[in-house]
Hints:
alpha+beta; EC 2.7.7.85
Amino acid sequence: xxxxxxALNKIPYIGFPNIGIRDIIDIxxxxxxxxxxxxxxxxxxxxxxxxxxxxxxxxxxxxxxxQLHTLWWVVSNTITVGTIALLxxxxxxxxxALEQIGRGNxxxxxxxxxxxxxxxxxxxxxxxxxxxxxxxxxxxxxxLIVLEQETQLGDVExxxxxxxxxxxxxxxxxxxxxNTPLHDGAVIIKNNRISAATCFLPLSDSLExxxxxxxxxxxxxxxxxxxxxxxxxxxEENGTISCVRNGRIKRGLDAELIKKILAATQKKKRxxxxxxxxxxxIWKGKSKHE
Length: 290
């Protein structure tokens, strides 16, 4: 307790400066720019990396205030090197953001994403996906279906063609039909809708992947390694249906198993949402009494 008091006493007192109209405008503009950046990042895979950076900065602040010299030395040196590393890691996202600003599409994409929060797949959607997979398996039609979970896939969606349609087995079958314009690439499903098609996925460079698996399966494993997405793959060679998540693949799925996997995934998503909504209600209740 004495250590904490001593650390707090070392923080210099900052008085209230004279704030004018220009200062208020300056603060509002900076706050708005920060909001835009955060809103854009939240719709990409960069959000998970950003949360990691925030945690490191929080640890650095705590180490500095509490005078934890060894921890501060480690974290400060990590931040110095990490600044350059972040530019390398975020290079594709930074380039894409600059391109969108140049085309004037950044604000439009942000506004279109406001209020998009789904409760997961409906029973009709699960039935439609299962029916489509079984049909494509029967006729050996290659398919790659990515179901978004907690990690946003906005940057992956932008590589394809936006559809924004209700989920149906007929539409999925038609998308992946051979020699059609949309058959090449992945379909992204989010908020209980088919969001985009012909999307490009990052290929996994793992050496443990079986040589029997082609580019479609390697792409499915690749997106599952960098996100928490659930991916369904239908093989064009033998019609085998596979499920990929967290870099692991399960092959030889049938209709019942597909339904169980989709239902279990969406049940977890709905429970997480209810837990979050419950916390919001509790917090609002506390604020009212206070």
